[in-house]
Write a structure and sequence with these properties.
The chain contains 14 helices and 16 strands. The protein is α+β, with helices and mostly antiparallel strands. Mean pLDDT is 87; it is low at 1-10.
Length: 434
Amino acid sequence: MEVHKQAFDLDMQAALDAILSHTYDAVFVVEQKGEGWFISIANHQMVKLFKQPLEGRFMSRILLPYQYDKLKEKFQTVAETQQLINFQVDTHFHAEDQERFMDVRLIPLMKEGHLQGIMGVLHEKTETRRQGAENKNLKERFSSVFEYAPNGVCFIDKEHKSFMVNPAFAKVTGRPIHFLRSHALEDIIHEEDRPVFLKAMDKVFSGHRSYDGMDLRLLSDEMEEDKWISLSMSLSQEHITAKPYLILQAVDISHRKKEEQRLIKLATKDHLTGLYNRMVFEDALKRYIKQAQRYNQSGAILYIDLDDFKIVNDTLGHEAGDEVLKEVSRLIELSIRDSDMAARLGGDEFAIILQYVSEQEAQHKAMQLRDLIKNMSLEYNGSQVKVGASIGVEPFGLGENLEANILLKRADKAMYDKKALQKEERNQLLGSLN
């Protein structure tokens, strides 16, 4: 029986030696001898820390006085309470050593109710602390960059909710941060652009692509101008849970869009009347003709030239003439449908493309418009301004394959024929009155 017990003790000692030699922590055992604490066991990690032999030496001979005094107080606490204690310490273990951050655990070793010694376990957390400090610095830098970034930035989860929003994003969208964090982002996108935005979000979340500079309109009050943003989207994921989220960056491009629209208007619209110019009209006419031929539809061109316009310019001045052109343009726009198109071709000449009408319907529209212009009430500097209109009608479509420039020339000729006929009718009327 004694043999087995001895063998068991030897096995336990071997196991303890194995643990002490293979653990990454520094482990030591101290026993109290007189007024001092004597190191009876120190594993290789402990020796490595101090770079000197430790077993069989007093702690007071190894540590600096202030270090020993602090540790002695801890030993005394363990001895009195017979309870393990944990604490942390920043310290140097030898002259050339860098400062280390250690977790220290002191464990009372008891036998039959009496303290035999104290085991100390030192777990180094210097690198963990350094990485924690670096992570904290990175977080603080990120927070600073995020907070003061000139561009709007927000993070969107799979439910389309913003869980991080910086002040610039709130400014760009014109909504407070608390509103953006409590609403789905599509709620602030213009209803006409919303389907495109949602489709783009789905593609980014699926990992198929990212977007750099998607132009979108935001919802705005009826009295406000459209607000435009350029939105970039990319996919990321939460580091711990791996949940995907979108990083959105937004820039206010309302001014740029306004300038683009102004330039487009300059390039496509007549600056005086606001009607389309000749270049846009001719391009549109080509499309209308192709569509009519493809679907066997009919349409017509109205070619308008003002009568007696030169007299207005000569007698009342060009400013009066400009007012006539603007009022005629207003009447033209009021008299056509959304599917039709009107343009000022130059001088006092206008043209209209009528879709889905027969020649008879086009002739009827021409008569209505001529009467509108003839009965137009316009006063300039106390004088009543009166003009007339000659309107030529040229149908297109229903299988006839004609070029746009030929149709326009035909409409122009029809207008001059109408002008000549009206002049002849007027002369005959004057002759009969005389």
